[in-house]
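Notes from hallway chat w/ T.B., transcribed later so I don't forget. T.B. wanted the structure written out for a chain they're using in a teaching module, and asked if we could keep both sequence and structure tokens in one place. Agreed to drop them here.
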Amino acid sequence: MASKEKISGGESVNMPVTDLKYFDTGIGKHSGVGTLHAAPGFGDLSNGAHGTFVKMPAGFESKIHTHTGEYYAVVISGVGVNLIPGGEEVPLPVGSYWSQKGGERHITKCISQNECIFFINQTVKFDDFADDDHG
């Protein structure tokens, strides 16, 4: 799903939160609390560079997984955690930031009582490979 404007062209854009169009990514069916939903800010997460809002249900914990490309994330609401397996769990409240190296196994969580919203920026298309997807 693409945003109103491409990252490298067009006019300046103002997008109120009420205009964000979230869709179900299908990621997280295992969680028991719901799946991740995404809304484009710019670009298209399935085709290349993008900035995307991601809603994660309260209590969500991803499987151990990787992404091909690195990404950068800012916490918009809730309290998230992003860690490598066995690593330190550092709570990331609103305004916090993390970066995730491509190809590195990690877990992402929403540990707040309300859903988390993250804004992620990536220079390549988004993908997600859970450890059990690798057979």
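Follow-up for T.B.: The domain at 17-134 is CATH 2.60.120.10 (Jelly Rolls). Might be a good example for the class.
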